[in-house]
Amino acid sequence: MWKKIGVFLLGILVILLSICGVRYFLSKSIQPNVATQADIPVRDSALSIFQKGIQYQTISYDTLPPDSIAFTQFQQFLAEKFPLVFQHLEKETFEKYTLLLKWKGTLANDSPIVLMAHQDVVPVDPLSLSHWKSEPFGGKIIGDTLYGRGSVDDKFCLFAILEATEMLLQQGFQPKRNIFLVFGHNEEKLGSGVATLVDSLQKRNIHPKWVLDEGGEFTETVPGLKGRKVALIGTSEKGYLSVQLKVDMEGGHSSMPAQQTAIDVLIAAIQNIRTHPFPAGFNSSMIGFMDYLGPEMSATNKFFVTNRWLFNSLLLKIYRKSAPGNSLIRTSIAPTIIQSGTKENVIPNIATATVNLRIAPGTTIQQALQHLQKSANDSRVSITPIGIGKEASNITDTRSEGFTHLTMCIQENYDSVLVSPYLMIGATDGRKFETICKNVVRFSPVTDLKGMHGINERVGIDEFKKGIGLYYRILKEAQ
Ligand SMILES: [Zn+2]
Fold this sequence. Notes:
Elements: H1 2-26, H2 46-54, H3 68-81, H4 83-88, E1 90-94, E2 98-103, E3 113-118, E4 141-142, E5 145-147, H5 155-170, E6 179-184, H6 193-203, E7 210-219, E8 230-237, E9 239-248, E10 252-253, H7 262-274, H8 284-293, H9 299-305, H10 308-321, H11 323-329, E11 332-340, E12 346-347, E13 350-359, H12 365-376, E14 381-390, H13 401-413, E15 418-424, E16 440-447, E17 458-460, H14 461-477
Parallel strand pairs: 3-6, 3-7, 7-16, 8-15
Antiparallel strand pairs: 1-2, 2-6, 4-5, 5-17, 7-8, 9-13, 9-14, 10-12, 11-13
C-alpha cells in the first residue's frame, strides 16, 4: 500500500518537474532586443543650464501657496535658455504656473503625445543641511556628479525634455504627431495644476495617444540579474489614503486607571490592523515584470519565475520578506502619527492615530476602509478618511504604443539594458491623464533615484546627457 502511494507521489513529482522543465526551456525572451545606437551629442550649455535651473527654489510646501517670484523667475529662465521652444511651441498656463507647450505636428487633427515633468521640488529639512555635501539649491558639481534638490526629482526630466526639444528645433525637425510638453507646478503637494489642464483638454475633446511621465528608473539590483541594468517602467500606480483612528472614552486620574484606557484601545486597534495585512498577490504589472525578466535571469531564479503557476506562493513569500517587496504585492498599512494626552498624571479621554495606506491596483478605497474596520475589530474605534484619497491607477497594456516606443528608445540609447513593466509605489501627475488617455507610462532615465526627497539628491553628469538623448529619440521617432 505505502509503496503504491510512494510510486504515485513520485510519479506526480516527475510530471510536475517535467512541466517545469519544459516551461523553463521554452520560455523565450520578450525583450524588444533593439540594437544600441551611437550617443546623441548634446549642446555644450546643457549641463550649466541644468545647474542654474536647480538654483530656483520652486518648492512645494504642503500648507503654503507657491512662491510666485521663484516660479515666475524660473519660467523666465526657461524661456531665455530654450528660445526656440518658447518661440515655436504654443504656450498655455493653468493655475498660473502649470505649463502646456504645444508643438504642432505635420499630421492634422491627431491625438497628441504627451511628455511630462514637474517644476516643483520638495523642501529641504533645515536640520539635515549639515549632511549635504554641497548647498541643496547650489546645483554644484563634485567630481562626475551634480548635487541639488530636483537634480533627480524632477528637474532632471524637465531639463532633459526641453534640451531635446530645443536641439530638434535647431535642426529644423517637425514632429508628425502633435507633441504636448506638460510641466506641472504642484505635483509634490498632490496639487491640481495638471488635473485642471487635463479637464481643459477633455473639454476640447483632446485624447492623447500616450503619456510619458516621471516614474520608474534604472536599477541593477533585480534578483537573478545581478549587475544587469534594468529599466523599470511604471505601468500602474498604487492609490493613496490616510485615515484617522479615534477613541473617545472616559479618562480620569492616573492613580486609578480603568482596565482599558483610550490609549490602550487605540494601541490594540493599531496592532490588530497591522497583524491583519491586506491579501497579497501579483497585479498585472508585476506579472509583466516576471514575464519580461524571468527568461533573462540566472538558472535558479529563471526556473521559479518561469513556473509561477506552481511557485506563486513561494514567490509571494520571498516578496513578503522585505519592506519594498511587500509593498509591491499588497495594500500597505503604515501608522504615521499618534496623539493623546496632555499631562503626565491625567488619563486622556481621546486618543487618535493617523494611518497611511498605499492601495494596490485591484482594491478600492471603499474595500480598504471595510478591511480596516473589520481588522480593528472594536466598535469603540472610529475610522474615517482624511481628505479624499486616490484610487489605484489603471494598468497600461505593454502592447500599447507608449510602452513599446519607450522600450525601443531605451534600448537604442542604452547599451545592454533590459526593460520591464513595473508597479509604481509612489504617485505621479501622469495618473491625472487617465480620464482622457489609457496609455500612461512612467519612467525617469536615472539609476536608483539617489537622495530623492532626502539628503544629497544627486545625479551623474553622464546620466543627464544620456537622458537628453533618450528624450531626443522618443520625440524624433514617435509615429
Ligand atoms: Zn517627482
